[in-house]
Design brief:
The protein has helices at about 10, 15-20, 75-80, 90-95, 100-105, 110, 125-130, 155-165, 185-210, 225-235, 255-265, 280-290, 300-305, 340, 345-355, 355-385, 385-400, and strands spanning about 35-40, 45-50, 55-60, 60, 85-90, 115-120, 135, 140-145, 150-155, 170, 215-220, 240-245, 275, 295, 310, 315-320. By secondary structure, it is α/β, with parallel strands linked by helices. It has 2 domains: about 1-30 and about 300-404, Queuine tRNA-ribosyltransferase-like (TIM Barrel); about 40-300, Queuine tRNA-ribosyltransferase-like (TIM Barrel). The strands form 4 sheets. It has an 8-stranded parallel β-sheet with strand order 4-14-13-12-11-10-6-5. A 3-stranded antiparallel β-sheet has the order 1-2-3. A 3-stranded antiparallel β-sheet has the order 7-8-9. α12 links the parallel β13 (about 275) and β14. The model has no long low-confidence stretch (mean pLDDT about 95). The protein binds zinc ion. The site of zinc ion has 8 residues, from α14 and α16.
């Protein structure tokens, strides 16, 4: 029994992945921090976001490099996967290695040797996940780190101060993200606190961040559409450079997550980028793009790669399985990544069994390339007026990733 499927017939009409990744940008120059929409189909849209480190073609998937590295990849590897902008985490980097050392390198770009876009998350989500290690009040959160248990305080100001030293192109503000199963009063309390912190961040940003650093606000409200709209109204008026939907993919049913994006994203301002934090599976990304979301990030392609779970155009593949032992074919014959153009399934499985670090590098390159290609194909579909045909072509592939 194989875990991959014959989806090739419907994919024939898609352009070659490399051609898609190499497609020229329809807008080459714009003021740093600005966003232009260049194509639209229904609620879905494509645009260009201008950062201090070059234009970002949207929709865009952002690989996660929490500590200033996408595990196992060099910046050159990362660029070759089609990555345009990567994530760092202000909380993690504030403790390891500390913002001063990063600042001494000219910021996170210099520290990592990455000359393209960087978005930093506040790390509030991680701090709120430290069960029993934090005490939250209206002006911030006291916590003990998961590194050494030392005591610290995170506030809207402290987050921006760290992000200023990191020099990220996009700085996320501190927000309060409640668990997916939080009841309405808790959801509302988190919303109100997030608004208070957002107002404070909006007042401080010009004083703390560099003029080239964008600053994004975050909308909470769970899957409650009334709360989401109310909160969107509060955050949208604060003048942030972009808006994010937080608190999705935190344990709520997939259908509710998709419905929330479909209802809320189209109501977000059209002249600013829209970001959904922490998603997701290939169907989640497609649902987000269809809803008009421009940016997403997720640990899934990188974490799954290390756990032997590979994403392919023919469905998921567990490289551990015995069926791959003698298989000379690449992971995915549609894929132009370094892994698929140089190695076989048998070799990759062998590396995995030998626990060779090369396995992690090749598998991560492949999964990130798959994600970048999937989004690039959607982007190209939007820009060439063939979005519906692209959606029809990839539907059998998406079905293989549906929850089961
Ligand atoms: Zn590949």
């Amino acid at each position: 029994m194989t875990d991959t499927h014959d989806t090739s017939s419907t994919l024939e009409s898609l352009p070659h992945p490399q051609e898609v990744l190499d497609a020229p940008s329809p807008a080459q120059e714009g003021p740093v921090g600005s966003f232009v929409e260049v194509a639209r189909s229904g609620d879905a849209r494509s645009g260009v976001l201008f950062t201090a480190h070059g234009p970002v073609q949207t929709p865009v998937f952002m690989p996660v490099g929490t500590y200033g590295a996408v595990k196992g990849l060099t910046p050159r590897d990362l660029k070759a996967t089609g990555a345009q902008i990567v994530l760092g985490n202000a909380y993690h980097l504030a403790h390891r290695p500390g913002p001063e050392l990063i600042e001494a390198h000219g910021g996170l770009h210099g520290f990592m040797g990455w000359d393209h876009g960087i978005l930093t998350d506040s790390g509030g989500y991680q701090v709120f996940s430290l069960r029993g290690l934090q005490k939250i009040d209206d002006t911030g959160v006291d916590y003990r780190t998961h590194f050494d248990g030392s005591k610290h305080r995170m506030t809207p100001r402290s987050v921006l101060e760290v992000e200023a030293k990191l020099g990220s192109d996009i700085a996320m503000i501190l927000d309060h993200c409640p668990p997916g199963d939080a009841d309405r009063p808790l959801m509302r309390a988190a919303m109100e606190r997030t608004t208070r912190w957002a107002r404070e961040a909006a007042e401080l940003r010009e004083q703390i961040l560099a003029p080239t650093q964008m600053c994004f606000g975050i909308v909470q409200g769970g899957t409650d559409l009334e709360l989401r709209e109310e909160h969107l109204g509060q955050i949208a008026e604060l003048g942030f450079s972009g808006l994010a939907l937080g608190g999705l993919s935190v344990g709520e049913p997939t259908a509710a997550m998709h419905a929330t994006m479909a209802a809320v994203a189209p109501k977000m301002p059209t002249d600013k980028p829209r970001y959904v934090m922490g998603i997701g599976t290939p169907p989640d990304l497609v649902a987000a793009v269809r809803s008009g979301v421009d940016m997403f990030d997720c640990v899934m392609p990188t974490r799954h790669a290390r756990n032997a779970q590979l994403f392919t155009w023919a469905g998921r593949m567990n490289i551990r399985r015995a069926e791959h032992r003698d298989d000379l074919r690449p992971i995915d014959d549609r894929c132009a990544c370094e892994c698929c153009t140089t190695t076989s399934r048998a070799y990759l499985r062998h590396l995995h069994r030998q626990n060779d670090p090369l396995y992690g590098r090749l598998a991560t390159i492949h999964n990130l390339f798959f994600y970048a290609q999937l989004i690039a194909v959607l982007r190209q579909g939007l820009r060439s007026g063939t979005f519906d045909a692209v959606l029809a072509s990839i539907q059998p592939m998406l079905d293989t990733y549906a929850p089961r």
